[in-house]
Amino acid sequence: MVVLASPDAATAAWQILRAALLARAAPHALAALAHLSAVEQDVLLMRHGLDWSDTRITRVTGLDRVALDTATRALAGAVYPAGRMRRRE
Asked: Cα angle vertex 57, ends 38, 20, to 5°?
């Protein structure tokens, strides 16, 4: 389990929610995420699985905006279909 930088209750809740999401995921979906770092997996789950905004993701993960943008760019080539990236506030 990844230890996130933010010390608030939302971070602890995310760890529980993340474990529940991964426990319910289909094996082929987990295999598709296996090559991603834990941070990239978290960003992917938060943004596309839960449709969270960048602001909420940074608050829960403790990532600053630059780190979130870097993780998003890393994901762009790895899992997002062309033209599907979006940024939400």
From this structure: 55
Backbone angles phi, psi at 60, to 5 degrees: -75, -40
Q: Is 0.70 surpassed by the pTM of this model?
A: no
HSE-CB at 60 with a 13 A cutoff on CA atoms is 23
Indicate the DSSP class of residue 87.
-
Give per-residue pLDDT as tens, 46-86.
888 888 899 988 888 888 899 888 888 877 765 555 545 45
Compute the C-alpha angle 53/56/60, nearest 5°. Answer: 140
Residue 76 CB partners (closer than 8 Å, separation 6+): 85
